[in-house]
Each structure stands twice: as C-alpha cells, then as structure tokens.
C-alpha cells in the first residue's frame, strides 16, 4: 500500500540515480580503462592504473602527505575547537550570539577567499614575515607558503567551525545541572571541564573529528593555492591528471583509492565509536 | 433506527485486538460517552468512525449509510482532537473558517457563520488572536468552534478536557454540554474520567480491553453495574466473594461470610459469585443487626463526609458516612456493618479480583 | 552571565582573532592604493574596486554564480521538500537507505564527485552547460536542505493534518495550507544555506565549467593560481560583504548554529 513516499521522493531519486550513482559507477569503470598519449581513453579492462599508483613511490608520498595533513588538521581542530565550544557554551547569551557569528560564520565565506587571506599572511613578503622582520625577531623570512605546515594552518582555520559545531551540539544535549552538581561537590572549573564535561562531549568530538578528517583528506582549494605544484595532495593530483595530463583513467583510479580509503577510515571510525560509546550516545 | 451504528467493530494490530467486536448505537441528538481505562481502545474506535483507521472487521453506519467506502474528508464529521490540533499559523477566525473554505462557502456567509460559532463558544472577542497566545481552555473552545461550524451530523470528541486543570475542567463540562444542546448535535465523547462521563452523558458505553462491558444511562451504570469491572471502575465499591445458594424470580439467597442473606434477584446460576456494595450504602449498626463485624483501621475526615477503612473477615471495606455533626468511630474501635439487600449487586465472579 | 575565567577569556579573544585574521587581511588589502598586496594598507582607496568594473570577467562570473545559486537552490528545494516529507512522516521499507542516499554527497570526497560529473556530462555533451551546472549543484546542496526540512517535519503534529482532513481538505490543500507554512522556516533556512554553498562551490565546479560558464569562485581560483593582486582581494571583499549580509539575515531568522548543525527551530 505504501507507494506514496516513493512517489514523493521520485523526482529527487531520479536526479540522484541518474546524476550521482551512474556517474560514480562510470568513474569506477573508467579507472580500469587505459590511456594512450595519442589514442586517448581506450576501452580496455585492466588493473594497470592501480598497479601504477601502488608501485610508484611518488604516489605513496602524495597519499602519505594527504593523510598526514588531514590528521594534523584534525588534531589542531580538536585541540582548539573543543575548549572554544565550551567557552561559547558558557558565554552570556548576548556575547554568545556575537561569538557564534565570528567562530562559525567563516564557514559560509568562500574557501577561496579564506585561503587567499592565508596566502597574504604566510608569503615570504607576507604580513607575518614582514611584521616579524620589522620587529627584528627574524632576519630572513620563514618559509610558510608552499609547505605542508602552511596548508595545515589554513585547513585548521577552514574546518575549525565544524569541530566547534559538533562539540557545541553535544554540549547542548547534556544536562546543564551536572556542572552545578560537580561544583557543589567541591570541583574546580578545570576539574569540572576535564572530569565531567569532556567525557560527555567525547561523542561530539569524535564525530567532529570524522567530519574534519574526511573533508581535509579530500580538500582541494587550500592545498592548490598554498601548495601549488610543489606540495601536491591527492585532490590536486587528480585535478592535474584530469585537466592537464588528460590521463582520465589514472586520475579516476587515484580518486577511487581516495574514496575507498576515506570510506574505510570512516567506517572503521564509526565502528570504534559505536563499540566504545554506543550506550553513551543513546 | 439509530443514527450511528457500529456492528462487530474490530481492529487488530499484529497480535493484539485494540478493539474487539464492538457493537453499539447512538441516538440522534444524544450525548454518548465512551468510557474506559487507558489503552482500552477508545481512541482507536473514534478514529475508525472518523475514517482515519480502517476497521479490521465490522461496519459503521451513519444515518443508515455505510461509511466504509467514504474517506475521512468526505464524512463531514466534526472532530475535536485530544491535542486540539489547532493550526498554529492561523488566527482563531482563520482556524474556524478553514472547514467552510473547504466547502466553498462564500465569503459573507463564512464570516457570519464564523462569528456565530465563536459567539457560541464565547470567543467572539478573540477572533484575531493566534492560538499560541491563548489558554488551554480557550484553545479547547476554538477546536470546538472549528468542529461545530461545519454543522456536522456527528461530533467526535477525544478526551477534550483532559489537558485542563480540575477547576477549568468542571466549568468546561457544563459549557460543553450547553453548547452541545444549543447546537443540537449528536455527540460521541471519549474519556477515561468516570465522573466526567456520568456528569455529561445521556448514555455511557463502558469499555475494557477493547470490549464493550455495558451500555446504559449514567444512573444505571452506576446503580446497576453488570460486571465486576464496571462496578469498580465507576465510583468506589466493596467487592467480595459469596455463595449464591438459589435464585427465585423475586429474590436470591446468598451466603456471605457464613451468614445467610436475601438479595435481589439475578440472572445467574448458583455457585460462587461476586457481590458489590457501594461504601455510602454501608451503615454502622448494633451488634445484633450486623452482617459483618470489623475494626476501624483508618479514618479520614473529608468535611462533608467521613471515610473509613474497616478490616473485616471479608477483607478491607471502605465505608463512607455523611458528616451528621456527631462523633464517629475512632481508629481501633470495633464496628458492626450492615446494608440493605437491595443495595447488593450480584455479579459473575471475576477471576482477576479488582 | 559569562561564567568563563580569565584564561578562557584570553583564549576566546585569540581564537576569534585567528578566525577573523585572513578575512580582515583580505578586506584590508583590498583598500590599498598601491599596485601590490600590502597590509596594513598605506592609505585607503577604492582603486581596486573600480578596477573590478574594468574586468567584465569577474562581473560576468558573479552573475553566473548568482543565477546558478538561485536556480540550483530552488531546484534542490523543490526536490528535497517532498522527499523530506516522505522520509520524515512515513514508515516504509527503504526509508533509511533513501535518506542515506540523499545525504551521501556530504560523504563522498568532492573531487570524486567533480570527476564523476565531468565524466558523465562530457559523454552527453552537457559539460560546461548551465543546465549541467544546475543539476550537479542541486545534488551537492540537497543534503543541506534535506537536513533542515527533515528536522522541521519530524517536529510536526500529524493530528493537525487529520484535523484539516476531517474538515474536508484534500492532500494538496493540506500540504499548501497546513504543512508548508509550518516547515517554512526550515525550507527558507535550507534554501539560503544551499544558495551560499552553491555560490561558494569550487572543487566540483572547477571540473565542469567552460570559459562561458565560469563561476566566481572558479574565476577567482584561476586568477589566484596565476597572480595574487589587490584586484582579487577587492572581489573577495565584496563576496564577504554579500555573505555577511545573508548570514546576519539567517542568523536573525533561524540561528546560525542551528542552521549549520541541522537542527529544527525550537
Ligand atoms: N498504531 C498502532 N499499532 C499498534 N498498536 C496500537 C496502535 N495504536 C494503538 N495501539 C494499541 O491499541 C490499544 C488501544 O489504543 P487506544 O489508543 O485506542 O487506547 P485509548 O483507549 O485511547 O487509551 P488512552 O486513554 O491512553 O488514550 C493500546 O493497547 C495500544 O497500545
Ligand atoms: Mg486515546
């Protein structure tokens, strides 16, 4: 009898089927095709693209760098975002609405614009280096552009709001009276945070970390602008294969490996979280 | 022929029978209550009449026509939901006008009828308010006006007063009855509150576990409960086991706690039965006239009445005595209890003693 | 009441400074009278804003982004609202799978989406067309609308629908007069979020535009990868101002945090 929900979802389902599932499958098949410089994409089926990626240390380096950057970004987001979410939670409502705009608002501002800001800040003649030189703290500029460190810094800025939001949501789910209860038992503010608040928001931190990690691992604009050709990550490599080298099958294979590794990490992470915190999440 | 008829109405959810073979009728213009404890299937019954649930079995007829093929929106019934289900984004007047709009009533007439309906529920002055800014009692009356304005053949009310505080509930009982009478609309009301059912209805249908237990006037269900469940659900009752020795067309012979007593006649075969006596019908008498003797265990003064709990060989008995301005038995006193034979209700034995 | 200690207040200030730094820098640089990037600017001039007017590329791209955002967000809303009603109100087999499918664009790395769309569109000659952009953007932004509308739908009282039905309303009337007005804040919030997401989208779009349909982020991106001059800073500053206006508007209406967490209006 229940066909009404399907009728109502039919338009969206059609769009997603035709324009999401089909293209993803096509890309999957594309990754098994081969590519000749003069012949273009050849409709053969082989594992050669995957073999090429797996056997070449150049690609290992790119994948290694990508996940190292993602991991470092996740770490810094958690380190800064968790306390900030708690501070936000404890602000007076008037201040909170202002700080929310400042902390979360940048999420809505184009990543290109924000990365441009970081490029201006981090360049050899950039704001930070000039200031440090003017104050006589350094003699020669510190190289920050075209380094993994610069990318991590900018990506931390880009994804911090997601961490704050995830922890913020977890904070709002907890019973506001528990801190007062802990205080009435004689706990100091830092102890309250560490022993009472933190354990309760761990599910939020974990889900925030997952979001940040997966987005950082596949981020494109920031590494492309701050890393250029020199510091390549998976996403920029795929971009080059598709739009410069035109070796689509190889690019598709790299992308599929990225998709697979992100999916595996996400599923494993979810498993872990569910096993460890399944009951607490109820 | 009755106005609303339900024949063998049954609704099954998986294994459970939410409503089990329910047959009843409602006369035109009358106010009938469907009374029963929580979960006994009242809402389910009402939803089947309204057309929001399909009966598993059975038929519903309204003014002679079978309702089963008619969708809810074409049944033309007025329904007041337990939660009122007001349209929160519309003003009171817009809420009430909605049903008329659906019937393509023209604007001038719509305005007049909305005003009349709001007048009926004494809310004319709040026509442009939003429901959010109204009290529970006012919202309830908006819901009522919205249901009545379409001049339904039948008004269905699902626990319309259960969200109100005690004082407001009493006021609204009178108000609802007045409105029902003025509008002259046949009404079926669901409630789990026995005093509400007794106070408002022409007839009461008592349900338990999906089954109809008794259908009678309020006075009859209270005075002549036909099952142990009805006797205890409506008002307070002392129920105990007794031996039915014999039955004649005018009387019956009972053995209660070793004493032979004559009771009213009953349509039961001799054997173990249950006897129910209302606490206010029990008298305290001299030792010689006693049916049973016990010790006062608790005594509560209620102003107009005394309520006593007396431990007897038949079990604890509740006794209610009018406050006649004199001293009553104290806790620990021995008292002798008796009652007139006609105040005994002899019922089939209920396995699960209430 | 502010319950934070001194240390927390310092942390808060530094954190806010960190979040604002790159944005403030871009805005500052855009005001320089010089021909190179300079912060703080040595003077205040609108020279580089004027320069935008001499660069029809940027203006053209901004128009495309604006149109694209509006059309894609509208298409996505029209698709997502009935789907959210079905998922939020119905109990049917496959409901969770359906929801997972509609949220999946959030899970798949955007580069993967980009090349998948490129592959598909180029096979059908749709690559670089406005239609192609609209459809792909609609897919990417549907999850945002779906989440917010779903939150609104779950909070709906179904007996209100029944009340309307008992008064004679048809399914369409119930949707138009009862359901839609109740979920409207969620729909509008979702639309705005979807619009902004589409307006800012780079990673997918960069694969599927051609010179005639280049969007503003793609235009800015290719400009920055070649040279960083104050021109792109002034364009950026304008998009920041535009976004802030939208942002403050939705924050007033819906609450920015709830919009982005994807929770319903309380
Ligand atoms: N959709 C359903 N699926 C399964 N069981 C149901 C469903 N609706 C009701 N029931 C069951 O049917 C029985 C009757 O429910 P109903 O809502 O009619 O009770 P009620 O008399 O109105 O109770 P209350 O006074 O609490 O409102 C209950 O045991 C309930 O659990
Ligand atoms: Mg009920």
From TrEMBL, chain A:
GO biological process: transmembrane transport
Annotated keywords: Cell membrane, Membrane, Transmembrane, Transmembrane helix, Transport
Domain ABC transmembrane type-1, residue spans: 63-269
One term under GO cellular component: plasma membrane
One Pfam family per UniProt: BPD_transp_1
Topology versus the membrane: Multi-pass membrane protein
CDD domains: TM_PBP2
Chain segments annotated as transmembrane: 12-38, 58-82, 94-121, 151-171, 201-226, 246-269
InterPro entries named in the record: MetI-like, MetI-like_sf
Gene3D superfamilies according to UniProt: MetI-like (1.10.3720.10)
PROSITE patterns registered for this protein in UniProt: ABC_TM1
Record's subcellular location: Cell membrane
Family: Belongs to the binding-protein-dependent transport system permease family. CysTW subfamily.
PANTHER family in the cross-refs: ABC TRANSPORTER PERMEASE PROTEIN, INNER MEMBRANE ABC TRANSPORTER PERMEASE PROTEIN YDCU-RELATED-RELATED
Name this protein carries in UniProt: ABC transporter permease protein
TrEMBL record, chain C:
Listed transmembrane segments: 12-31, 63-88, 100-124, 130-157, 178-199, 231-250
Keyword Lyase among UniProt keywords: no
GO terms, biological process: transmembrane transport
GO CC terms of this entry: plasma membrane
Main localization, broad class: membrane
Record keywords: Cell inner membrane, Cell membrane, Membrane, Transmembrane, Transmembrane helix, Transport
One protein family per Pfam: BPD_transp_1
Keyword Metal-binding: no
PANTHER family referenced in this protein's UniProt entry, alphabetically: INNER MEMBRANE ABC TRANSPORTER PERMEASE PROTEIN YDCV
Designated name of the protein: Putative ABC transporter permeas PotC
Species this protein is from: Donghicola eburneus
